[in-house]
Amino acid sequence: MHSCGVFQYYYQDTLLADQSSSSLAWITTLQVFLLFMFGPFVGKLVDAYGCRKIIGPFSVLAVFSVCMLSLCKTYWQVMLAQGVAFGFATSGLSLPAMTLATQWFSTRRGLAVGIVSCGSSLGGVVFPLMIPRLVEEVGFASAVRWVALLQGILLGVANVLCSTPFPPTGRQKGGASAGLKAFKSLPWLFFVLGCFFTMWGLFAPLNYLPEMAAQNGMSEQMAQYTLAIANAGSVVGRVLPGWLSDHAGQFNVMTIVSSLSGVLVLCFWLPLELHPSSAGIIVFALLYGFCSGGFVSLGAPCVVSLADGKLDEIGLKLGGFCLAIALGALTGLPIEGAIKDREGDGFVGLMVYAGVSMLLGGALHVTARGLKGGWGLMSKV
Question: Given pLDDT bands bounded at 50, 70 and 90, which one contains residue 81?
């Protein structure tokens, strides 16, 4: 999923060249939407049956969907394989991993979640380097099959190693609305709204940076490597802010990284569209990867801090959070794609839209932080 820009670039240039940017954006946005939309359902299953019984079937679906992608020739086939099937599969893989990290660790939860979540960033470093080279050497279909093989091996290891600290609760009646009750809390409401608006703009650089870099004079190969560079920054961005949040407070660090993501888009990426610089694009990729990675890794610790210490219910509550931000993920990239279609080859409009959205998300996180722990600048919240 963090390699979405590589696929977007290939589809736009070769496989689905007849489709508009907004149409292609629906593939990625549907993946992200399904990842979060099924959060409450998967979270309840993790609480009831444990992680291993959930991760196994979804691992099979993930590998199967990637294999089916290698056979795709048309837009609707890619949408079903990558957008629907793989998106649904990720909902049963990502959320249990994040849930386990929050359940196993109490004192250094931010660092633990950061380390777990940086796995996707490591994949985001490997796949943008791996896929374009394989496509060039053996073609798109064989390249995707090699990706499926690698995923299958890694998911097999994950299934062997995962375990939960709590015994499964089994099926329980009357608990389905537990996660929804959190929305009555003002800090929770503003936090979720902040995540919604941040998600509106978060994937814009990850989806359009390779295309923008190529149009502004960077070589095609190097343009696709910008995603690997961004994800390399995200590896550090997921661990360091997580560690810092354990000492300075989850909401304090979340406020900083979500706001800085918007600032970087408006004050760094936007000027690069007007005054292109290959070196500047690389630096932006690193910095944005760091800040956006911090946002991703801090979501779960912030939810835990709003869950009143009921860690055995964290799967459902984290699922409720995921469902709320799914709406932001669903609409962000298609809107940005439509803006780009109106501009033609330009990216200014979508950059402004993404940057302002993330700044609004940062402002809402500031509000949530103040409502939860007070407005003192030195308070640990």
Answer: very high
